[in-house]
Design brief:
Length: 199
């Protein structure tokens, strides 16, 4: 197998070949030297892929803003701990299954993931609320290499003059022993999108 550059996106064949060779102890001497069949694999390469999913909710009327504010107050009051709310929402956005994001889900993300010590994002006519998910996936075939998904969530309240009046941001790391690799790859390889809906 030819040497692969230190940082790149791998195809399934190369990745599986690297896993097979790098993780098999019979391919390596006690001193860490290659004794397997064929060329020595580069077990120190790093694969990094990322995507960005953004959704903006607009409030064109007083009625829509008031309904949002009422729904949010109710949701944040009764929202339990939903540790996977951000992941579930992101998977929905990544697969195109979510046209908008439920207020209750946003409340759970805001409360449990962002843990922002600021009031809930109260809206007014002409304002908008933007939530963004950035997923960065890191993988290495080395047995002690980095294998994780970093999910960064940010939210912004934007007024009728298009000025940001409040924002929050948080990042969470998921090791591949606590999150299936298929889901991590799905999120990081999803086409970066920006969608808009009205409340």
């Amino acid at each position: 197998m030819s040497t692969i550059p230190p940082l790149q996106k791998l195809n399934d064949h190369d990745r599986n070949e690297l896993k097979r060779k790098c993780h098999n102890q019979l391919n390596w001497s006690d001193g860490g030297h290659w004794v397997g069949v064929g060329h020595k694999p580069n077990c120190f390469i790093n694969e990094q892929i990322s995507s960005r999913l953004t959704h903006t909710i607009k409030f064109p009327t007083d009625q829509s803003a008031n309904r949002w504010n009422t729904d949010w107050e109710t949701s944040i009051r009764y929202a339990g701990h939903l540790g996977t709310a951000a992941l579930t929402t992101a998977v929905g956005l990544a697969t195109g299954g979510v046209a908008g994001i439920a207020v209750g889900t946003l409340a759970a993300i805001f409360k449990d993931e962002l843990q922002a010590k600021i009031p809930y994002p109260k809206m007014y006519r002409g304002w908008s609320y933007q939530v963004e998910f950035v997923h960065q996936f890191k993988w290495s075939p080395h047995p002690w290499g980095q294998r994780e998904l970093i999910q960064t969530i940010s939210s912004k309240s934007i007024n009728h003059e298009d000025k940001v009046v409040a924002e929050a941001k948080s990042a969470r790391r998921y090791k591949l022993d606590e999150l299936p690799e298929d889901i991590a790859r799905l999120l990081a390889t999803a086409k970066s999108t920006s969608s808009v809906s009205e409340f």
